[in-house]
Amino acid sequence: MAHVPAAERRSQLIDAAIDLMKREGMAAGSTRAVAAELGVAQMTVHYVFGSKAEFTRAVFEELGRRVVDQVRPVAEHPVEGGFAEALAHTVRVLWRASVEDDGANTLWSELETHALRDPVLRRTHAEHTMNMRGITAELLTTLAERSGAALALPAPTVARFFLAAFEGLLSQHLAAPDEEAERRCLEQISAATVALALGSLPLPEHV
Predict the structure, then answer these.
(1) What's the CATH class of domain 53-198?
(2) CA torsion angle for 55, 60, 61, 66 (degrees, to 10)?
């Protein structure tokens, strides 16, 4: 393969790794296999990334960036209407975007589990989690402002609640998809999030 700038080669290797591991699982993503996938020497991977750990971190970061890129357009252009209606519509849009690529979702789940035992990946995952929570909090704040609703709890608290439910349903989708059940669950997640956000869901005093 012809010589290309390091930044471009880095992107190519990450994309090749993701494509390979989406098909065959995280365990298949050795530097040798990824190099073969792209048609370059194995030493190219080590030259660009320095180590297998750094390569794995780069793949993890890229998958996280893609997740954020799915969410951000929705957050930046939320629909009009009442708070409950707008949130329910937004949740449906997010769900459709989230389930478009189950291979990527499965790989993300594998990497998340691996991150629990890897200090570097754990920090990377924590940064991604904070980023997602921040974007979701911004979305909730924008929806509330546009609909004239007042949030009874801090937006980050409501965002944490919503993401816990939404991501849990996504995990169940990967294990045993059920379109009708998922539709009903999304309706309940939206309703519960609205109730929490507007203060109509009873809470312990310490929350």
Answers:
(1) mainly alpha
(2) 130
What tokens does 87 get?
A: 């949130």
Q: Does residue 75 carry a pLDDT above 70?
A: no
Please give the model's pTM, rounded to 2 decimal places.
Answer: 0.82
Domain residue ranges of the chain, discontinuous segments joined by +:
1-50, 53-198
CATH (residue range 1-50):
1.10.10
